[in-house]
Design a protein that fits this description.
Blueprint: H1 2-22, E1 26-32, H2 40-54, E2 58-64, H3 68-80, E3 87-91, H4 95-101, E4 104-105, H5 114-120, H6 125-128, E5 132-133, E6 136-137, E7 140-152, H7 153-158, H8 170-180, H9 196-206, H10 224-238, H11 250-258, E8 264-268, H12 272-278, E9 283-286, E10 296-306, H13 311-324, H14 327-337, H15 350-358, H16 364-367, E11 372-373, H17 381-396, H18 402-417
Parallel strand pairs: 1-2, 1-3, 10-11
Antiparallel strand pairs: 3-10, 4-10, 5-6, 7-8, 7-9, 7-10
Length: 421
C-alpha cells in the first residue's frame, strides 16, 4: 500500500508538472508613451485586457513611460540592464537610430505567413514611410497623426468670417488672422517647442520641399524653399502680428485654444477627442493651408519588435500588434483618442463610419494623408533634430536670420551624417 501511494503521488506530481508546462504563459512587456491628450492609458489598458481574454496563454505588462523620448530611453535602458521587453510603441522617426543600435528586428522576419504579409500591406502608404528601410518593415503604425488646423467658429463669426471656411493658403492665414487678432486674442498659434521640427516639416512641404531623404543620411535644411518657409513662420509674429513673437509652448497650446486665447492652432490630430470634450464653443478642423501645395508630415508612434526575445515571445508580440492594429481596434482607438485609423479597412468599420458621419472632423487627418510626407528621420536622429529645432527657435526669437541659422544647421548635420553615406 505504501509503495502504491508513493507511486501515485509521483504520478500526480509528474502530471501536474506536465500540466504546468503545457499551460505556461508567454509574458510580454510593452513600453508605451503617453504624450498627447486623451485617456490613452485607459484605452490601451482596455485593449490589452481584451487581447488577454482572447489569448489566455499570453500575459501583457504595459509600462507607461511619458513622452516618446522617455519611452525610448526607458525601453533601451531596460534592455541594456537585462530586463525583458519584447515590444514598444516609440517614435516612428526612431527607426534609423534603433537599427543602428541593433535593438530591433524587421517585422518581415516574424510575419512570414501569407496572412501576415497581407496584414503588413494593409496600412496607409504614407504611414509606412517612416517604418520602412531597405525594403523591410521595422515599424508598424499605431498611434499616428498628421498636423491639422483647429479653429474657433464662434470667433470666425464675430470677425465676419465664414465659419465653414478655414484658411486655404498662406495669404489667407495672414489676412484672416489679422481680422481675428485683438486684445487678449491671437489670430493663430503654431507651437515652436516640443516638436518644432515637425511643425516646420509641414511648412516646408507646403512650400514644395522635404527635409531629408528616405535613407536618412541627407538633410536639405539650407534649400531656398526651406529658408522661405522659416521666414514665413517668423513673419506671422514679427511682421503680420497675428501670432506671438518668440516661442509658443507645445504643452499649453491646447489650453490656450480652449480658453479662446487663439482663434486658430496647428496641432496633432491626437488632440481631437480632448478638444471635442472640452471646447465650450463651436470649432472646426481643417487641413493645413498651402503655399505651393497642401502638406503635413505624418507623426506619432509605431510598434517595434526588440531583438532580445525568444521565438515564442516574438510570435506572441506579433499577435498583440496584429490585434491592436486590426480594423475594429484601430476604429475604437481613433474614436477614443482622435488619432487616425491606420488602415483603409478601419474606416470601413460600422463604428468609425458612423462616427465620421456624425463628426466629420474625424476624417480630416486621414484625408490629409493624400498630401503627407514622412516626418524628419535620420541617423543620429536626436542630434540632427536638435540642430534644426535650435535653428528654428533662434530665428523665431530674432537671434539669427533664417538663412544663417539653417545654413549652420545643415553644415553640422552633414558632418554628423557623413559616416552613413
Amino acid at each position: 500500500m505504501l509503495r502504491f501511494a508513493k507511486t501515485g503521488l509521483l504520478a500526480g506530481m509528474l502530471a501536474a508538472s506536465v500540466s504546468t508546462v503545457s499551460y505556461a504563459k508567454t509574458e510580454l512587456t510593452m513600453y508605451y508613451p503617453v504624450s498627447v491628450g486623451g485617456p490613452l492609458t485607459k484605452v490601451v489598458d482596455g485593449m490589452v485586457s481584451e487581447f488577454e481574454e482572447k489569448n489566455p496563454d499570453i500575459d501583457v505588462k504595459a509600462i507607461y513611460a511619458g513622452n516618446y523620448n522617455d519611452a525610448r530611453i526607458k525601453a533601451l535602458a531596460a534592455l541594456k540592464s537585462g530586463e525583458p521587453a519584447q515590444l514598444s510603441v516609440m517614435f516612428s522617426i526612431d527607426v534609423h537610430e534603433l537599427m543602428d543600435l541593433g535593438t530591433i528586428i524587421p517585422f518581415d522576419e516574424v510575419a512570414t505567413s501569407e496572412e501576415d504579409k497581407k496584414w503588413l500591406k494593409s496600412f496607409y502608404g504614407p504611414l509606412m514611410q517612416n517604418g520602412m528601410v531597405d525594403g523591410k518593415t521595422y515599424g508598424v503604425p499605431f498611434q499616428r497623426s498628421t498636423i491639422v488646423m483647429y479653429y474657433n467658429k464662434d470667433l470666425f463669426r464675430k470677425a465676419g468670417l465664414d465659419p465653414e471656411k478655414a484658411p486655404q493658403n498662406w495669404d489667407e492665414l495672414v489676412s484672416m488672422g489679422k481680422k481675428l487678432t485683438k486684445d487678449g486674442q491671437w489670430g493663430a498659434m503654431i507651437p515652436s517647442t516640443g516638436y518644432p521640427y515637425w511643425m516646420f516639416g509641414a511648412l516646408t512641404k507646403q512650400n514644395g520641399e522635404v527635409l531629408m531623404n528616405q535613407a536618412g543620411n541627407e538633410t536639405y535644411f539650407d534649400k531656398d524653399a526651406v529658408v522661405e518657409a522659416l521666414d514665413y513662420w517668423k513673419s506671422l509674429g514679427s511682421e503680420h502680428k497675428i501670432m506671438p513673437t518668440g516661442t509658443i509652448e507645445w504643452g499649453t497650446l491646447r489650453q490656450n485654444f480652449l480658453e479662446q486665447k487663439t482663434a486658430m492652432m496647428w496641432h496633432s490630430t491626437g488632440n481631437l477627442t480632448a478638444v471635442k470634450k472640452n471646447a465650450t464653443f463651436d470649432f472646426g478642423v481643417a487641413m493645413l493651408p498651402k503655399s505651393k501645395e497642401f502638406g503635413s508630415p505624418t507623426g506619432g508612434g509605431n510598434f517595434y519588435l526588440f531583438k532580445k526575445s525568444t521565438p515564442e515571445e516574438r510570435q506572441a508580440a506579433l499577435k498583440l500588434v496584429k490585434f491592436m492594429t486590426s480594423p475594429e481596434q484601430a476604429a475604437k482607438w481613433s474614436i477614443s483618442t482622435g488619432y487616425m485609423g491606420v488602415s483603409p479597412a478601419s474606416y470601413d468599420t460600422p463604428e468609425l463610419k458612423a462616427y465620421v458621419k456624425e463628426f466629420p472632423p474625424a476624417a480630416v487627418a486621414r484625408d490629409q494623408l493624400e498630401h503627407a510626407t514622412a516626418e524628419l528621420s535620420t541617423h543620429q536622429a536626436g542630434r540632427v533634430r536638435k540642430l534644426l529645432d535650435d535653428a528654428i527657435q533662434a530665428t523665431l526669437s530674432g537671434q539669427s536670420s533664417a538663412k544663417d541659422a539653417l545654413s549652420s544647421a545643415q553644415k553640422q548635420a552633414e558632418r554628423i551624417l557623413k559616416r552613413y553615406k
